[in-house]
Design a protein that fits this description.
Number of helices: 32
CATH architecture of one domain: 3-Layer(aba) Sandwich
Number of strands: 7
Shape: globular
Largest sheet: 7 strands, parallel
Strand order of the largest sheet: 3-4-2-1-5-6-7
CATH superfamily of one domain: TPP-binding domain
CATH class of one domain: Alpha Beta
Length: 625
């Protein structure tokens, strides 16, 4: 472990009441708690979803017999991609398939005793916490109640510990209780976990974000056992004004954790290097606590999940794993998995057959096989229309069908499907059960319809549909107050409408606003889409060099997204159009040659790549010669 200077510095901040702890899953690893790390729990959930004969090859690659199968995992890009997704997202996919039965998968967290690190944190708050102030707090992303249990035991009263997991419970008011701010919910309140899953794309709820930013500004924050990989929290930590950060982590783990490196580089602070047991053993001695940190880690979740596996139907596991693959996205692997489900769903009920067709359609669309995707979605739609009682799945299928028609340039048919989806929307009954989901879903279908209207306007050159599109976008913007990604897309499409109306500066202003939102969320494909549109607008305004630079930015963002090969090709196409308008035939030839090399090297692949290569080379060579 590093010298004692950083430990002494942390101890001084504790004694001066100038630090607040932020606790992650790495704290609950140690005995007697023995909870899994976030990565271990992800692996165990994946082993659960692949525990059937059809997925034995995938399970073997993950290394079911090896606790940390680094060599096996390194051979599989599938696993490396999946394991980069947040734990809450993977659990959310499992919950989609199992419903509330999925919460039983987390029962191993209940009834566990706190370990020495929990006890030390509780003793620090008991001794140095300021009762009746707003400083008697601790942050955590953990679902378990081990911090609350340790605090209640140390303070002697449960009622003096206040776990806060709903947004309305988050405030900076002074309180007598010790507050445990549980940013991702609590196992004792399953509904709070669902809120967390939905917040991954929307961003952290406003009340929670405001409280976190308040403490970032006014206190040193000490991260303990936390990786900063949560997509709803990392942007706040990265962009907020911070007084200073202390990160407790092993040297090797810190070197591999790009997010923590970014935070320390952006805000400054101290890295306390070493094993968690060594760090807190030293801190315990420095603060005068007599605690024994001779503890080890044994994951208690794998046996529980293995026992639960037998209660889950094979097709449920297959569908869950397919959704996980699509979310990464690995559409080709998802199609392979779906082929294994054909026999299982051939005689299934309508719901299962529709789910199969839906997932197959999404996989085919992601692969660029739009006609096959349309056939799958239409088959699913027809099955649902034959039902005597309308089903909620109809709305989803109609929206997917409209999206696919749009990307296949069949905008009039897409508009018809979106209008049918809008008519089926009231049947969902979301308004009475979940007002946030209702607003977001309603906003999404309005956005889809507006996009189809704008595509039609571009295609026909007629501006008659623009007022209706504007009204739909205004209504969508009013509804989408919680989902930041949805808001970013609405702003982007509003900018497209401004462009079609000839309001070029308004279009640029909207695009830069959308770009800021996508950057904040870390959405690379969204950034690429907006950068291409900025390049298009600048090209139309004859700022050719600036347009080329934005198209290069779009290309680089699409390459970084790995799965966005169409985005790479569209960026090259945009560059080609600008160079043609500028009559820069030599540079056009160079651009075509560059794309040829990338196609040969596998950066861009498929028939579409060849089409663009031949098109660019033919035009540029003819003009250049």
């Amino acid at each position: 472990m590093q010298g004692t200077d950083d430990i002494d510095f942390l101890a001084e901040l504790i004694e001066e009441r100038e630090v607040v702890f932020f606790v992650g899953a790495g704290v609950s690893l140690w005995e007697p708690s023995n909870l899994p790390s976030g990565r271990e729990l992800k692996e165990n959930l994946l082993l659960l979803t692949t525990s059937c004969d059809e997925l034995a090859a995938y399970r073997q690659l993950l290394g079911s017999s090896n606790r940390r199968p680094e060599a096996a995992r390194g051979k599989s890009r599938v696993w490396s991609g999946i394991l980069e997704k947040p734990l809450e997202w993977i659990f959310g996919v499992v919950h989609e398939e199992l419903g509330d039965r999925a919460f039983a998968l987390l029962d191993f967290m209940k009834g566990k005793p706190p370990n020495q690190i929990h006890i030390l944190l509780a003793q620090v708050l008991a001794r140095y916490g300021e009762k009746g102030s707003n400083n008697n707090v601790i942050f955590t992303t953990n679902f378990d109640t081990l911090l609350e249990d340790a605090l209640a035991s140390r303070l002697g009263r449960e009622d003096i510990v206040k776990p806060c997991y709903e947004s309305k419970q988050f405030s900076m008011e002074s309180m007598e209780e010790v507050r445990v701010f549980k940013l991702h919910g609590c196992i004792e309140a399953p509904s709070s976990l669902i809120t967390t899953i939905r917040a991954l794309s929307r961003g952290l709820e406003r009340e929670k974000a405001e409280v976190l930013m308040h403490y970032l500004r006014n206190k040193w924050i000490c991260f303990v056992g936390y990786s900063a990989s949560d997509p709803d929290i990392f942007p706040i930590l990265r962009d907020a004004t911070c007084r200073g950060l202390i990160i407790c982590e092993r040297e090797a783990s810190f070197a591999a954790n790009n997010n923590m490196g970014q935070l320390l580089g952006a805000h400054g602070g101290r890295l306390v290097r070493g094993d968690m047991r060594d760090i807190f053993g030293e801190l315990s001695l420095r603060l005068g606590f007599s605690l024994n940190f001779d503890i080890d880690h044994n994951d208690a979740s794998s046996e529980h999940l293995a026992q639960y596996s037998g209660t889950i139907a094979r097709e449920t596991k297959l569908f869950a794993f397919c959704k996980i693959l699509l979310g990464v996205p690995y559409a080709r692997e998802a199609l392979k998995v779906l082929k294994k489900t054909i026999r299982l769903t051939a005689s299934a009920d309508v719901g299962r057959r529709v789910k199969f067709l839906h997932l197959r359609g999404v996989s085919q669309r992601e692969q660029g096989d739009y006609n096959a995707a349309l056939r799958s979605f239409r088959k699913a739609r027809d099955l649902l229309l034959e039902e005597p009682v309308p089903r909620n799945e109809l709305f989803l299928i109609l929206r997917e069908l409209g999206d696919t028609l749009n990307v296949n340039y069949q905008h009039e048919l897409a508009l018809m499907e979106f209008r049918r989806a809008t008519m089926s929307f009231p049947r969902l009954g979301l308004e009475a059960t979940d007002s946030t989901l209702y607003r977001d879903t309603r906003a999404l279908i309005l956005l889809n319809t507006a996009m189809a209207l704008l595509y039609l306007a571009e295609e026909s050159g007629s501006l008659q549909s623009l007022p209706e599109a504007g009204d739909l976008l205004a209504e969508a913007s009013r509804l989408a107050i919680d989902d930041m990604e949805l808001r970013a897309n609405i702003v982007r499409i509003q900018a497209r409408r401004a462009r079609l109306e000839g309001r070029w500066l308004d279009a640029l202003s909207g695009l830069f606003e959308a770009l800021d939102l996508f950057r904040y969320l870390g959405k690379t494909v969204g950034q690429a889409n907006v950068a291409r549109e900025i390049g298009f607008v600048l090209g139309k305004l004859r700022y050719c060099e600036a347009a080329l630079e934005w198209y290069r930015t779009a290309r680089n963002a699409s390459l970084a997204a790995e799965s966005d090969t169409p985005g790479v090709l569209k960026a090259f196409d945009g560059m080609m159009q600008v160079l043609r308008a500028k009559k820069a035939w030599g540079r056009l030839l160079a651009t075509g040659s560059h794309l040829t090399f990338e196609a040969l090297e596998g950066v861009t692949t498929g028939g579409l790549s060849l089409f663009y290569v031949l098109r660019i080379l033919r035009l540029s060579r003819r003009r250049h010669l």
